[in-house]
Amino acid sequence: MGLSSTTADQATEWSFTQRSLHALLYGYTRFYQGGHWESSSIPATGPAILACNHVSVLDPLFLVASNCRMISFLVAREYYDNAWTRRLLEQTYSIPVRRDRRDVGALLQARRLLEDGRVLGIFPEGGINRGQTQKGLAWLVRESAAPVVPAHISGARQGRSDLATWLRRQRPLLRYGVPLHFHRDADAAEVLGATMSAITTLA
């Protein structure tokens, strides 16, 4: 278990702030939370969509800490209203999304991110808007032809508040599955069915 190997689009290109943030998250998730993870199966280079189950606000922290590639997330816009969380999210080039309707602009930003050869993190089982997130995942797969990397987190639980969850010590386990490759003409049901099945299999 441990970090995946450093790749060209990462630690060598990360700013001092980004490297410091990664080290902080690694220390918090590994030593404070007692988390464990398998070696990441995200490809060393090129675009990829990381699809994980969603059990708590800790989930993106474990995904970031367990990888040496930069992971950008689709994040509910209200998290950008807080100056502290906004600075952290901006360091990972995450994309704010509206909860109340389909946010076409956010999907277009996500497509551009994948076109740039980066990694996009999505939580299709929950989060901003489950139905729209799932449809967005299928659309992005068709538009980018990026592989989907399934992941599963167990042993973590959301508390009464985000702060309570961050402070409560848990021992999560993060597992990665084999990347899924789809044809550009794959329909949404095929993409979502295979992705959700792969995530469930890792439980």
UniProtKB/TrEMBL annotation:
Task: Identify the CDD domains for this entry.
Answer: LPLAT_AGPAT-like
Q: What is this protein called?
A: 1-acyl-sn-glycerol-3-phosphate acyltransferase
Q: In which pathway does it act?
A: Lipid metabolism
Q: Note whether Transmembrane helix occurs among the keywords.
A: no
Organism superkingdom: Bacteria
Alphabetized Pfam families for the sequence: Acyltransferase (PF01553)
* Residues annotated as domain Phospholipid/glycerol acyltransferase: 48-156
Q: Which GO terms describe its biological process?
A: phosphatidic acid biosynthetic process
GO MF annotation list = 1-acylglycerol-3-phosphate O-acyltransferase activity
Q: Which UniProt keywords apply?
A: Acyltransferase, Transferase
